[in-house]
């Protein structure tokens, strides 16, 4: 076990004392004369809120070993407090088992091995208070800090009734769970957008579900954590599945053109908007509640800690008006309408009929956005509007340009695992008004037209960047970003590929906002229930700062770039940036099956065919893992002549591969069209992290006392594998100049192409070899026409440029 | 989708009316003059408890389609109520989507296809009320009845404050969720057992965690649903893993003996018991609470419905005293101590120190037990004591004799998937006092001795039934059973094998108690979150009857034996018994590779070797699935000479295989020891149900308003497989007479053996072939000495006897 904590705030002794008093851990006056062991014991005694009598408490405390032969009460009689017994007891409070998890006679060594903060000396009150303060902030076996574990036992119950002037209650810069989740107010409002996307002559009303502390009814103004999730009100999975496009189609030759970006640039529509609804009255009381929202456990954690949680699914979803149009500017406007209401700059009504206005009177006007994938995407979209009230976004696995989600360099490129999906499919899936039979009836014909328009606009024929995609490119508007940004992405996310976060991260660099980046080793996942990382606490620190305006140094404390190591499990490392500092550029040249540091004297041309037998094709189009493992294998297989493989020498030292590799190739197709795909591969037999995290303990994470739960998980090493795919790239040979312009392509003629692979942050261990596999049809991402095309590379004009740093 | 509901109570119109009034669905006086469509609309209006104003309500109702072109409000203006619109609306309320899940113009056909109850005519008030009453009891897409789905939206909130005289609130014979789960009282008591298993000179105190409705504080007496779970306070997984026995050992020849059962019969110890603790005071107020118990979602469902939930882990677990001894009579006594306290016949204290007595003053004295595996086992153990207060047990996947869990016919036979596990390992794993470091210190030496005693007693050397196992055989005491019994078991449970439930079921047959049996197609799983079966409602009906003494005909309504079909998904069928009625006995004879209905004229002897190459052995001992798939394959493989395979002709008709197949073999070993294993196999390429249920929707089952949740799941057909293992059997050739007696065995001499295979209830489809595979070493269950032994069968003296019935 190894723990990584980045949310810890270093505070002086006086602050420690007052915070411990604030949360009720210190009720006595602490003076230098206070008995050390009395104080320690009083701390321990307070760590069992489930005990409601002295006898019960004593029984529980006496179960704690202090030394290999004494329980804590026996030890305490000796009137000393040494670090060893302190951490023996501490480890037990943190949920570790004597003997199994740690040696009772070596607790300090265990603290060190687990990468937990500890103090070697406890010679005076100040040191003891400091050690206890830190222990409360230390993560335990169940992946929560001790104070959160105590909260799950009801520690904070007596503080639920604190005067609102004392809320939020802070400890170590973070808001504590002193908000009764049993009493959360759940209400629905309908926000009037400045849109009429369903063309019914009325502005689209947008349903928002709110969970907020009841303290708000007593005068506490709380900030809002808002998740814009198009999936939230249900999805049309079956209808979406039926719409999936057939990818078993040949790549079509495109007519060359001379398009410039200006030719395809998106211009905002200036449709006339129906008037606002008249306000016929106002109220503070909503008229609709709900049983269970579709929640995100990070939000659940925050709901117990004084943040209102707001979910809205947006235009075209169940309960709202309008239609979906997949990442369009209208969806962005629909997303920020909720923020505008929360910040007091837009109207909402209690229902869709009566025009009774209801304000977010309980909100302090500060809003953060959370969520992953489409949800994080809409957070990104919202940030690029600079909307007032939005103080930060935490965008996880977010799309920054929809072209980078569904296309690449003039090719239709599916999100990994979903060949045939496209913007129209997603629009249909999220159009959950369809779930309300009678509501659907009203809007069905118009949505049909809308869908046809999306299908035309996305243009699967050319795969080119066009006005449709330009309208869905948030990167163009990054200059508008006024809020602080915390980005999270998996370097193995082949659904929302890493380029999305990379481009956003790079575009933000110039702006005067705080930006943080976390890169994990997962695919398209949430990371708030990892045992090894204090992600929830980091978010708490961040949001307590951004939304409650608490000066907790969140900007300084959280690392600029935090990266999970892919070799050592449970290891996270802070870096100043993704791929700038201490990074060196390295050119690799191509030889027969080799990547070399120096340009070889002689190189040849090498060819491969993209065509499979019917049997091969049938086999590999079904099983992507099998296809990937076969085409990447460095031994002979039935796919080894369908690709070219180039490998470096075994590495002399561990290296970090950072950012995007850049590839130049000189290539000829024997047809008048063609595409290339490449994979960057780490070759070397080794145990590697699993594809998905392993669940360590079901429901063991408590988001608050008698509140919701989450499964604790972690990436673990699996059995040895011979290689691992690190990055990918794809290009249409007719998009050599730009993704929006079609170049000519003559059969059997050589052309220079160059493009970036997907960025990464990858630890290449010593002795491994870096490989590049060049092929064409990508079973899981490109069209799969199984055409008879041969490709030839002129190796003398090929070059791979990497950015690396020392490990 | 197909639904199966067995919990429905048929009640007359007057009862329907009064129950609908009771739950607040009917507040108007219904007369024959009441307008049909007004009444229907009032029902619909009441189905949206989340709406808190008329406008909101109207908006929600207007989203419901009544006909392909009209919403329900438009339709209702026509003043008629036809069955089609009624069920179109009904299906939407049940969560089905117009178009995707059902055709709006054919709702009755959908009700029929889904196997949901519907009424063809709604011509008068009585028919409409009846139809609505039934609709509230109808399961929807999320696997809950409509009334439970409404409860999840807060429908019952206004009834939380009902006078206690009106609680429990009944509808259709079941207790409704009118108990505020936010206010549940959570308390711990320590029950004094009549045991001193840790020999510390004091009676063992047993910790019990109780969750009970706060209404109890206002005078409501509630029954208790009690789960005895040794896992509940944590487990020592690592220590247990370390103790796993090495199974890669040869089978040892045993010295023949002439033991009789009387020689090994267990006699109860008569140890002297320390005196009871003196009572120094009494209280109604507990002194300890808890944050989160380790819960079972069925109990969560019941907790919202007026049943107190009690968890106790028993002797030797964290918080309790004593030591574990794996299924011993002391564990049974420890289990029933809790019931004795609940029924007022035993003392409990508020803590372990002060001797302040606390009674279960809130309990009506009626107790049920629930839980699976070891938990169900202890319920079975408790039932066989006839303890007062225990009204019923719901034993799921329960052991009825520990010999049938860890042994078979003179062999050490591991629970599937856990080779090397044994009673001592389980005792160690459950000895969770070890988790409290200082408490462990006190009891460690004694528990070490205890463990050594278990290791000796279980006797892995002979695998014979002995006094140790006889003490752990609950079947001997079945005559004591006084409570009603509901058994649940998976016919594919190779952990707790089906013989355990079969023997208990058969032993109960003679007793004047009600017994019910449910056989599902799962392995070792819970079945309370299946979409296709109303298991939770069945349990509600059962417990409302057994514990609240409500005359709801539960005994008559629930089927005697309910079996999930293994061919058709979502299909459950009621039978009068497991293997008696309409069952015919069928003898099959052995020929070369054949099982024949008539004894063949000539048969030969056939042999196989049990010995594998080192490489084979290394491969197959690691991967059980691979081993099973290879040894069962009916084509040549590297294991086909390690077994004999006999198959019937393809079946002319579908058949049901019921109960235990009986096998006679004439066999010789070429050594002076030996063992045979057999598998009964369904051969025939077909789509079959998956090994585990598929999760259909996460957290979609609400156990009550703002209460806990469960994942909805169901067995689904997977891709085609060539065969499926149906049953297994194992025997030591030296246990031909009895499992407690060792017979002689001479090398190369033929002996007659006969034994029962594990019982089953299996649907063999037409065209399939039944096969029997005879082999010796079972990679996942027996010892694996990889000895050079050859076995020879004399086919003329072999016979397989089956019990079958028509499908």
Automatic annotation (TrEMBL), chains A, B:
Enzyme active site: 373, 493, 524
Signal peptide: none
Gene3D superfamilies, per the entry: 1.10.246.70, alpha/beta hydrolase, Galactose-binding domain-like
Keywords for the protein's UniProt record, in alphabetical order: Aminopeptidase, Cytoplasm, Hydrolase, Protease, Serine protease
Reaction catalysed by this enzyme: Hydrolyzes Xaa-Pro-|- bonds to release unblocked, N-terminal dipeptides from substrates including Ala-Pro-|-p-nitroanilide and (sequentially) Tyr-Pro-|-Phe-Pro-|-Gly-Pro-|-Ile
InterPro entries per UniProt: AB_hydrolase_fold, CocE/Ser_esterase, Galactose-bd-like_sf, Pept_S15_Xpro, PepX_N_dom, PepX_N_dom_sf, Xaa-Pro-like_dom, Xaa-Pro_dipept_C
Gene Ontology MF terms: aminopeptidase activity
Keyword Protease recorded: yes
X-Prolyl dipeptidyl aminopeptidase PepX N-terminal domain segment(s): 1-155
Keyword hit for rRNA processing: no
Descriptive protein name: Xaa-Pro dipeptidyl-peptidase
Organism: Ligilactobacillus acidipiscis DSM 15836
Gene for this chain: pepX
């Amino acid at each position: 076990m190894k723990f990584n904590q980045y949310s810890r705030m270093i505070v002086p002794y006086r602050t420690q004392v007052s915070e411990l008093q604030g949360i009720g851990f210190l009720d006595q006056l602490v003076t230098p004369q206070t008995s050390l062991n009395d104080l320690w014991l009083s701390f321990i005694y307070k760590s069992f809120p489930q005990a409601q009598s002295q006898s019960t408490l004593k029984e529980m405390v006496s179960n704690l070993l202090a030394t290999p032969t004494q329980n804590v009460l026996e030890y305490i009689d000796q009137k000393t407090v040494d670090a060893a017994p302190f951490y023996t007891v501490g480890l037990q409070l943190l949920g570790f088992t004597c003997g199994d998890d740690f040696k009772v006679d070596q607790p300090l060594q265990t603290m060190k091995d687990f990468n937990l903060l500890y103090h070697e000396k406890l010679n005076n009150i100040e040191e003891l208070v400091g050690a206890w303060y830190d222990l409360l902030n230390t993560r335990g076996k169940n992946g929560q800090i001790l104070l959160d574990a105590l909260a799950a036992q009801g520690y904070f119950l007596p503080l639920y009734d604190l005067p609102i002037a004392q809320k939020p209650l802070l400890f170590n810069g973070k808001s504590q769970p002193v908000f009764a989740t049993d009493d959360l107010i759940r209400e629905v409002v309908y926000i009037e957008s400045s849109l009429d996307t369903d063309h019914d002559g009325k502005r689209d009303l947008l349903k928002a579900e709110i969970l907020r502390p009841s303290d708000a009814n007593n005068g506490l103004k709380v900030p809002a954590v808002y998740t814009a999730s198009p999936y939230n009100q249900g999805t049309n999975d079956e209808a979406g599945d039926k719409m999936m496009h057939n990818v078993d189609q040949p790549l079509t030759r495109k007519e060359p053109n001379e398009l410039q970006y200006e030719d395809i640039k998106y211009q905002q529509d200036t449709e006339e908007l129906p008037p606002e609804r008249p306000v016929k009255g106002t109220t503070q009381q909503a008229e609709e509640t709900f049983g269970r929202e579709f929640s995100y456990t990070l939000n659940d954690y925050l709901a117990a800690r004084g943040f209102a949680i707001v979910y809205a699914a947006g235009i075209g979803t169940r309960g709202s008006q309008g239609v979906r149009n997949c990442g369009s500017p209208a969806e962005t406007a629909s997303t920020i309408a909720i923020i505008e209401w929360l910040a007091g700059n837009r109207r909402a009504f209690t229902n869709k009929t009566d025009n009774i206005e209801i304000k977010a009177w309980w909100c302090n006007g500060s809003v953060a956005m959370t969520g992953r994938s489409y949800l994080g995407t809409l957070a990104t979209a919202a940030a690029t509007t600079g909307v007032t009230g939005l103080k930060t976004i935490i965008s996880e696995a977010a799309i920054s340009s929809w072209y980078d989600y569904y296309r690449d360099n003039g090719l239709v490129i599916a999100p990994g695992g979903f060949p045939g999906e496209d913007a129209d499919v997603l629009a249909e899936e999220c159009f959950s008004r369809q779930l309300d039979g009678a509501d659907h009836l009203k809007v069905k014909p118009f949505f049909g037209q809308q869908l046809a328009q999306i299908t035309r606009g996305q243009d699967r024929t050319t795969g080119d960047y066009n006005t449709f995609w330009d309208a869905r490119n948030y990167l163009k508007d990054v200059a508008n970003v006024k809020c602080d940004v915390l980005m999270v992405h998996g370097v193995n996310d082949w659904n929302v590929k890493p380029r999305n976060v990379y481009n956003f991260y790079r575009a933000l660099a110039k702006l005067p906002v705080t930006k943080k980046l976390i890169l994990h080793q997962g695919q398209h996942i949430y990371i708030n229930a990892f045992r090894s990382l204090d992600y929830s606490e980091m978010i708490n620190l961040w949001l307590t700062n951004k939304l409650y305006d608490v000066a907790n140094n969140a900007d300084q404390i959280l690392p600029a770039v935090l990266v999970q190591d892919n070799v050592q499990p449970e290891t996270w490392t802070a870096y100043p940036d993704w791929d700038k500092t201490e990074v060196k550029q390295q050119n690799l040249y191509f030889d027969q099956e080799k990547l070399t540091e120096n340009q070889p004297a002689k190189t040849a041309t090498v060819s491969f065919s993209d065509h499979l037998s019917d049997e091969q094709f049938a086999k590999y189009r079904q099983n992507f893992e099998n296809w990937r493992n076969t085409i990447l294998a460095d031994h002979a297989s039935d796919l080894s002549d369908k690709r070219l493989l180039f490998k470096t020498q075994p590495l002399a030292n561990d290296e970090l591969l950072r950012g995007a590799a850049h590839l130049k190739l000189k290539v000829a197709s024997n047809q008048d069209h063609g595409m290339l795909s490449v994979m960057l591969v780490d070759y070397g037999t080794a145990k590697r992290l699993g594809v998905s995290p392993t669940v360590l303990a079901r429901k063991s994470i408590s988001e608050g006392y008698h509140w919701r739960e989450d499964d604790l998980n972690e990436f673990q090493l699996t059995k040895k594998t011979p290689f691992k795919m690190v990055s990918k790239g794809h290009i249409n040979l007719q998009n050599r100049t730009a993704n929006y312009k079609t170049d000519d392509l003559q059969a059997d003629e050589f052309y220079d192409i160059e493009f970036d692979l997907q960025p990464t942050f990858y630890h290449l261990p010593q002795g491994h070899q870096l490989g590049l596999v060049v092929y064409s049809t990508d079973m899981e991402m490109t069209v799969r026409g199984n055409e008879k095309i041969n490709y030839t590379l002129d190796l003398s004009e090929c070059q791979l440029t990497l950015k690396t740093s020392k490990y």
